[in-house]
Amino acid sequence: MLVIIIAIALFCIPLLILTYARAAYISLIVSILYCLYLRFVTKKLRLKQLIYCGSIALCIGVSAGALYYLKPKSADGRLLIWKVSWQMIQDKPLTGFGKGGFAANYLYYQAKYMGRPSTSTEEKILAGNTHLAFNEPLRITVEYGLIGLFVYLTFIIWLLIPSKSRNSVTITCKSLLAGIAIWGFFAYPDQVFPLLTLWVIGIAFIINKKRDKKYYELPYNKYSKIAKIAVYSLTIICLSSQLWNKWEAYHKLYICLKSNNTELPNTLINVKKEMKSDINFVYLYSQILRANHSNIKFLYSIHFLETNFPTPGLFLIKGDYLKEKGKWEEAEKAYKLAAAMMPSLQTPRGKLAFLYNETGRRKEACRIAHKILTEDVKVYGFNTFKLHRDLKSIFEDKIK
User: What is residue 321's three-state secondary structure?
Assistant: First the structure.
């Protein structure tokens, strides 16, 4: 067993380092150490237990510190996310924001944090358009409060405490879950389907091993058999029907988008019921509504996205709409919020400059234009080129 673990480590660690998968690297090391701990350390060897536990903690600390220098900007970005998340926890420490509360509220808090005088220029550059916490305990605390964190940690500890039976299945599952749990401190395993699958399978095996071998069966006769078959059949039919409806909706949309069909608005309306929980669909639906001048439905979809999945791009769309309607103050607020959410993004500030220029606030417009044209660009693309070209065509003579 030890030879296999060492061989896996020697093969995987270089790959993980080359791909900069720092969280995966730390998780692999922790899984191996925990596997060795469960395999070779017994309850009687107290000193040996302390040595192994200390080794695991030391490994996490040293690895995290050493791997920080592989991609320091990425690590600093995660530290910023955790710092802003702490502000969210302080507002609702016990109950949290509810399911999906992190994605629904994080960027608003980031915008507020970026508006502080104490916020550094480096933090403004690092701030990104993210809806992930990169830390599972932190995300759970934000969404479910300290109560949810206590339940989560209690369950994790219960799963990972060494049990009396130390067979290969139990050791493998516990080591796997230990690695995934540590991965959750630096990444987002809840968003990776293979990891979720392994997580569920590992928990199922451990719970099966932990349960009492004495169990009682329900009375078994022909009526109970018929009832079970009926329940199973009904469940299969209902789930299959839901799965088929989902597949059919996505397939219709895929065919329509692939063929550039002019029936896209009608297709979106037909599949809306099955896809209303898909954020990407709602974004697409809102843009189609705006193109077709369906103002009431468009504003409703915008409000839904503001509440559940805000982004700087969403407020740019909202600002453009309000500007077209002549609602200058509301458009200004939308552009400012988009700029505050991600200060390194130049497009919201560029739209503010155009708005100020059109409304007679030329000094403010020139100041913003000068700032955009002279600062370093985080990511220079075609949109940035187009923005700079338009700004120069309007303000070049005024900002020289």
Answer: helix
Do 186 and 136 contact (CB within 8 A), yes or no?
A: no
- Please name the residue that has the structure tokens 């996505």: 250
In this prediction, residues 97-125 reach a mean pLDDT of: 90
Which one-letter amino acid corresponds to residue 381?
A: G
- What's at 175, amino acid-wise? S
Is-contact 20 70, C-beta < 8 A?
yes
How many Cα atoms occupy the beta-carbon half-sphere of 134 within 13 Å?
A: 18
Q: What is the pLDDT of residues 324-353, one digit of tens each?
A: 888 999 999 999 999 999 998 899 999 999
Highest mean pLDDT among 14-18, 108-112, 162-166: 108-112
User: Quick check: 139 and 87 in contact, CB under 8 A?
Assistant: no
- C-alpha–C-alpha distance, residues 189 and 118, integer Å: 33
Strands (DSSP E) along the chain, which ranges? none
**pLDDT exceeding 70 applies to what percent of the chain?**
76
- Compute how many other C-beta atoms are within 10 angstroms of the C-beta atom of residue 388: 17
Chain center to CA of 259: 31
